[in-house]
Amino acid sequence: MNISEKVHSSSGILVYFEIFKNEIRPVSFELLGEAYRLSKKSNEAVHIVAVGKDIDFVREKIKGFPVKSAYLYETDKFFQPDIYEKALEDCIDKLNPSIVLIGGTAEGRALAPRLAVNYRTGLTADCTELDIDENGNLLQIRPAFGGNIMAKIVTENTRPQFATVREKVMQPVKPDFVENTDFLVQNLDVEESSMKILNIEDTAEEDSIVNQNILVVAGRGVKKKEDLDMLRELAELLGGKLASSRALVEKGWMTHKEQIGLSGNTVCPKCMITFGVSGTVQFMAGMKTTPNIIAVNSDPNARIFEIAHYPICADLYDVVPELIKSLKGL
Amino acid sequence: MRIAVFMKQVPAYSQGNMDEKTGVIIRTGLPSIVNVYDLAALETALRIKEKIGGEVVVFTMGPDKAEDVIRDAFAMGADDGYLICDRAFAGADVLATSYTLTQALKSTGNFDIILCGKQTTDGDTAQVSGAVAKWMNIPHMNWINELLEITERDIQVKCQLDGRLSVIQAAYPCLLSVEKSIFTPRMPSLKLKMASRKKEIKRITLENLSDKDENNYGLKGSATRVRKIFPPERTAKRDVVTKDGKEASQYILKILNNLDTCEEGE
Ligand SMILES: Cc1cc2nc3c(=O)[nH]c(=O)nc-3n(C[C@H](O)[C@H](O)[C@H](O)COP(=O)(O)OP(=O)(O)OC[C@H]3O[C@@H](n4cnc5c(N)ncnc54)[C@H](O)[C@@H]3O)c2cc1C
Ligand SMILES: Nc1ncnc2c1ncn2[C@@H]1O[C@H](COP(=O)(O)O)[C@@H](O)[C@H]1O
Q1: Where are the beta strands (DSSP E) in A125-171?
Q2: Å from B213 to nearest chain A CA?
Q3: What b/e readout covers A173-198, taking b as 16+ CB neighbours within 10 angstroms?
Q4: Is pLDDT of B207 > 70?
Q5: Of A151, A132, A127, nearest to B23 (Cα)?
């Protein structure tokens, strides 16, 4: 098949449903929501593919969601890129989709580049926005070059178009559709991999900044490492945790696990208070769905104020000690 | 044992902005450094060498000045280094970058272990290593945080992936991408630095590769195109309130107290 034939003949949006501990990862439903929105624009069908043990359980879970067909591959093997990719290749070969959406998880990032190479096609990582143009090209929008620049990236001459999206970036849809999903369930028969998983343990993530109701966030406006102590104290008084922008991680004051943003964690606490964070697109990509954002910055034109629900122009060094005093009832 | 390490030169800090009127990226002459994740990859290679012997060869793709990466690697103890540099390689996306790296690697013989950083701090895709493994058709272990055992035949590693800790074993050849936390990179040694001053940095150009078709490299070999770059829209949600410390503190406490009753910012 020559290039343009492939581009024209492919159709449909395929979403990789990632299974973890016999559950579907939330990012999969977010991608499904986005796929549905895209499909309405381009008049294409949405399909899913899932791989794992007792995979039939997915049937129940996608009831009411707008899925034309579901390819379910049964295997008792834990995730290994060279094994799971076989399932996706089988599905993609049968379906010839135009677009494949994969979660920007550890698993997704192991899988996506292998598939992109297999089909000699494009892969855009960590898209923050997706759209479709009149020619069916997926418009993949993501921050670039640091700071405040967005790039619109397209894969024009090859198919499928692969994109990864991180958790909590897209919105899921509600399952109120009457869709007759076709199910194709099959065993994944693969040769032994040259890689062996010797042991697997599930680890708790309770302490992570991802699971907090309240986050206090420190940015470069914090002048000295010691000043983080008062912010940490504030976070504790509020029953939350301290997180930061990448600026402080680059200085070595905070750890990568505590970083919010495109190359850190995506968070969505009930409430977030940022101090001295300017609001670069990379930072905002990791927190913009937070329902209550209080931002304290001394610059009235700071970008963070564009998405803050409570934009406050003030000096953090005046505000934080006052807050601590009040919370301690002093 | 032949161990390859892929290292990339990146801007020292992630800052950059765009002139919103002209659409031109403001490059503020930032200094370049070695991607920190790749220093951890090099350290891993050196530890493996110290344990079971072998040769550590560094590869970097970039412009002439990316040579510094190799010099830095020599000062840490790398045995050999290649700069992959050709006009034809410029503007590469994940597909073309990984293909070029694979071709370059193959042009210098076989390797038992290939090490990559988890991600770069500029491209930041964390996808190149997986793509290289696929081109090479070898197993790849992503985001490794710990080296458990290493023998002449295979390697055992630990990785932490989204709430799951796995112990994995792979036979050679294999590719590992490593977390920053796997090892703290050693300080460059002045002695090695001096000794390596005369060491040759070998170059790999299109001519040296078995696939010499320039359509497979750089911008031409890339499947993705940047159609447009633009500043994000500026749309303020709320008016900014200016307050002194005390007022701001009272205001914030009031907001926090009201959170339970309303779900989303008023
Ligand atoms: C590939 C790549 C990935 C990236 N990923 C991320 C990411 O995941 N997360 C991330 O955060 N960034 C990321 N960035 C962006 C980059 O790291 C930015 O430099 C960083 O976001 C800036 O952090 P900041 O807002 O804390 O600092 P700055 O942009 O320097 O802002 C400091 C702010 O503090 C304010 N301020 C100063 N003094 C005070 C005071 N006394 N009181 C109140 N306010 C004050 C200033 O007005 C200013 O707005 C990435 C960049 C690249 C290239
Ligand atoms: N231009 C390059 N030269 C050498 N190695 C690279 C290059 N680009 C990427 N890599 C390797 O691939 C890893 C992941 O990069 P990325 O996918 O860009 O985040 C890096 O940590 C390097 O080990």
Answers
A1: 129-132, 138-144, 149-154, 161-165
A2: 15
A3: beeeeeeebeeeeeebebeeeebeee
A4: yes
A5: A151
Residue pair A264/A256 in contact (Cβ under 8 Å)? The answer is yes
When pLDDT is averaged across residues B141-149 and rounded to a whole number, the result is 94
pLDDT confidence of residue B266: 44
**Interatomic CA distance for residues A162 and A58, integer angstroms:** 23
The terminus-to-terminus CA distance of chain B in angstroms comes to: 63
- Average model confidence (pLDDT) across chain A: 93
Tokens representing residue B46 in the block: 């050196």
* Residue from A196, A274, A76 nearest B167 by CA: A196
Residue located nearest, by CA, to atom 43 of ligand 1: A297
B17 lines ligand 1 (CB under 6 A): no
Question: Are A72 and A50 contacting, i.e. CB atoms less than 8 angstroms apart?
Answer: yes
Strands B202-204 and B174-178: unpaired
In a domain, B10, yes or no: yes
Distance CA A229, CA A252 (A): 15
Query: Cα dihedral angle (A187, A106, A145, B31), rounded to 10 degrees?
Result: -130
Q: Do A306 and B236 touch (CB under 8 A)?
A: yes
Query: Are A150 and B94 in contact (CB < 8 Å)?
Result: no
Residue with tokens 């040694």: B189
Which one is the CATH code of A3-187: 3.40.50.170, 3.40.50.620, 3.65.10.10, 3.40.50.2000?
Answer: 3.40.50.620
Cα–Cα distance measured from residue A240 to residue A246, given in angstroms and rounded to the nearest whole number:
19
> For residues A264 and A247, is the Cβ–Cβ distance under 8 A?
no
Q: How far apart are CA A108 and CA A163, in angstroms?
A: 10
A150 Rama class: left (phi>0) / alpha (psi -120 to 50) / beta: beta
Instruction: Report the alpha-carbon distance of residue A259 to residue A247 in Å, rounded.
Output: 9
Q: CA B242, B246, B251 angle in degrees (round to 5)?
A: 65
Burial (0-12, 13-18, 19+ Cβ within 10 Å), B6: buried
- Alpha-carbon span A146 to A150, nearest angstrom: 9
Which residues, in sequence order, are CB contacts of B42 under 8 Å at separation 6+?
Answer: B5, B7, B56, B58, B73, B76, B78, B115, B185
pLDDT digits (tens, 9 = 90+) for B115-136: 999 999 887 788 999 999 999 9
- Where are any strands of DSSP class E within chain B? 2-6, 9-11, 17-18, 25-26, 32-34, 55-61, 80-84, 113-117, 140-150, 154-161, 164-171, 174-178, 202-204, 225-230, 241-242
Residues lining ligand 2, CB < 6 A?
Answer: B 6-8, 35, 37-38, 41, 59-62, 97, 101, 116-117, 119-120, 123-129
Count up the domains in chain B and report the number.
Answer: 1
| Assigned fold of A209-328 | Rossmann fold (3.40.50)
Show the domain range for B109: 2-216
ipTM of the complex: 0.88
Residue B122: HSE in the Cβ half-sphere, 13 Å Cα cutoff = 17
Distances A120 to A6, B98, B99 between C-alpha atoms, Å: 12, 11, 10
**B8 min Cα distance to partner chain A (Å):** 16
CA-nearest residue to B99 within chain A is A117
CATH code, B131: 3.40.50.620
Ligand 2 centre distance from Cα of residue B143 (Å):
13
Under a CB-based contact definition with an 8 Å cutoff, are residues B87 and B109 in contact? no
User: To which residue do tokens 């072998």 refer?
Assistant: B54
* pLDDT value of position A150: 87
